[in-house]
Amino acid sequence: MTNTFWIITAVLVGLALLFILYPLVFGRPERRINDDIRNQNLLAYRTRLTELEEEFQQGTIDEENFRMLRDELAGAMLDDVGEEQAPKEVRAEDLRMDHRRRSTWAVVALAAVLLPAGVVLLYQEWGALAKVEQYQAMQNIEQSEGGDRLAQMEQLTSQLRERLEAQPDNPDGWAMLGRSFMRMERYPEAARAFEQLAGVVDQDNARAVAWGLSAQAWFFDSQGALTDEVTNAMDRARELNPNEVNTLGLLGIHAFERENFEEAIRHWEKIIEVAPDHPQIASIREGVAQAYQRLGREVPETAEPRTSAAGENVSDRGVNVRVELDDSFAGEVSPDTTLFVYARTPNSQTAPLAVARLTAGDLPVDLRLDDSMAMAPQFRISGADEVVLAARISPSGGARPQPGDYQGIREEPVPVVSGDSEPVVLTIDEQLR
């Protein structure tokens, strides 16, 4: 984009220089113009005199008329042509022309230097090339597709981040960068992008949303743990807006995981109250309904669970899984090492739909991945038809895969069903290098 822009700019500057320089370089000096007119008048005089002489010799006109017409022609010629300049006057005019010629080339040289320099300096001061490049990078991210989409997004997000760092006053750019990092599961970078977004938006509510999104990214990175980063971002969001929906959603999930269903209901019902048009309102209502069911209380009408076309209770849908450790790694893993088991949508870079946090000492373990293990209201396993299952033992306790982790992935998608079903066996049989 940059090279193309400057090539077009150079062409336009060249055209502008041509309009300025053409009359200076190729214009005809006044003396040359006068000489041309004088020569044309002399040529016309001689031609007409020759015609008069031929008419007199042929007897068309008599001698008296010939002399009268010749004298009139000579007078007219003197008026048009004038007297020949004296040599001193000619030399003086030549000197003036030389001076004008040098001045002309000085103007040419000055224009050739100042015009391009002025264009560059003024555009750097008032131009918007960086914003154009940011917009183009954003468009490219949105339009990226195909099998190599992840690698393509890596390159495009890197370009967008560089341009945003050079010219950070672009809320749309930071928002897109954060969403792109979320799709790529680069949660810390997504969180920092949303924090940058909070610094460039004007309204308190918009800043609160940005901090809420940052909290959500840190929450995903910690696989549902309320780390310092998560709580700090949530506190910043709630200072600006106590009812910021992303923060309320995370607080509800954390409360649900601790089986504090009353608190989960309070947070999620507040979302229903303040954001009835929330794009994930149906999932939030299902979370509220499930919390009421865990308390053994009647579900309010506003939180009635959805049913599928087959009449299933959607919020009860999930996957039963049995996680085992391959015999080749027996004795290598400490029992207190963190174990993550999660399900995600096939062929997707979105956040996991359900995550269970255990320890290696629990293996082998049978569990059910359902909406109670959702990381956010908008990412629920009940809304998926099938999922890919994975488990990872992390000696560092970190959510992101790194060398030394033990991992097992079931590449073949498994169906999400309502009620009991045979557990899907997932074996941890690989160590990351």
Automatic annotation (TrEMBL):
- Specify whether RNA-binding is a keyword of the entry: no
**Pfam families linked to this entry:** Ig_CycH, TPR_CcmH_CycH
Query: Where does the record place its TPR repeats?
Result: 245-278
Provide the transmembrane region boundaries: 6-25, 105-123
Where does the UniProt annotation locate this protein? Cell envelope
SMART domains in the record = TPR
Keyword set includes rRNA processing: no
Q: Tell me the ranges covered by the Cytochrome c-type biogenesis protein H TPR domain, including all copies.
A: 151-276
Q: Where is this region: Disordered?
A: 395-421
Q: Where is the Cytochrome c-type biogenesis protein H Ig-like domain?
A: 319-429
Annotated keywords: Cytochrome c-type biogenesis, Membrane, Repeat, TPR repeat, Transmembrane, Transmembrane helix
| PANTHER family, sorted | CYTOCHROME C-TYPE BIOGENESIS PROTEIN CCMH, CYTOCHROME C-TYPE BIOGENESIS PROTEIN CYCH
Q: What is this protein called?
A: C-type cytochrome biogenesis protein CcmI
Recorded source organism is Marinobacter lacisalsi
